[in-house]
Design goal:
Elements: H1 17-32, E1 34-35, E2 42-43, H2 46-161
Antiparallel strand pairs: 1-2
C-alpha cells in the first residue's frame, strides 16, 4: 500500500522493489570493485555495470509513469475541490442575496405593520375618548332631566300638600 504525504494528503510514489533491487545490485558491484592504488577510484566489470544501467533505464520510465499518474490524480482532486468550492461559494452568495432581500422585505413589512398598529391605537383612543365624551353628555342630560323631573315632582308635591 502506498504511503500518504501527511502535509499534502496524496499518495507518495514509491519506487518499485525492482528499482531498489537494481540500486542494491549496483551498490554491491561498487563494493566488490577493485580499488585503484593511490586514488579513490574503483574498477568494476564494464559489462555488469552496463547491464545494470540498462535495467535502470527500463525501470525509471515505469516509475516516472507512476509518478505522473499520481500527479495527474492529485491535479484532478485539486481541480474537483476548486470546482466544489466555487459551487459552494456561489450557493452561499445566492442564499445570502436571498436572505438579504427577504430581510429587507421583512423589515419594510415590519415597519408598515408597526405604523398600522400605531394608527389603530390612535383611532382606538380617539374612539374611546369620543365614546366617553358622548357618555358624559348623555349622563349630564339625563341628570339634568332627572333633576328637572325631581324639581317638578317637588313642586307638584308642595302644591298637593297645600
Amino acid at each position: 500500500m502506498a504511503t500518504v504525504d501527511e502535509a499534502r494528503g496524496y499518495p507518495i510514489a514509491e519506487p518499485t522493489p525492482d528499482l531498489y533491487q537494481i540500486l542494491e545490485r549496483l551498490e554491491a558491484l561498487v563494493e566488490r570493485g577493485s580499488r585503484v592504488p593511490f586514488s579513490s577510484k574503483i574498477m568494476v566489470d564494464e559489462a555488469e555495470i552496463s547491464a545494470l544501467i540498462e535495467e535502470l533505464r527500463h525501470a525509471f520510465p515505469r516509475e516516472l509513469r507512476q509518478a505522473k499518474r499520481v500527479l495527474q490524480e492529485r491535479q484532478k482532486i485539486i481541480t474537483e475541490a476548486q470546482l466544489e468550492a466555487q459551487r459552494i461559494l456561489a450557493t452561499a452568495q445566492e442564499r445570502a442575496q436571498y436572505l438579504m432581500s427577504e430581510q429587507g422585505i421583512m423589515n419594510e413589512t415590519r415597519a408598515r405593520c408597526e405604523e398600522m398598529l400605531r394608527q389603530a391605537k390612535e383611532q382606538r383612543q380617539r374612539a374611546i375618548d369620543e365614546a366617553n365624551r358622548y357618555a358624559r353628555e348623555v349622563i349630564e342630560k339625563a341628570e339634568a332631566a332627572v333633576l328637572d323631573a325631581a324639581s317638578h315632582l317637588q313642586r307638584v308635591k308642595r302644591e298637593l300638600m297645600r
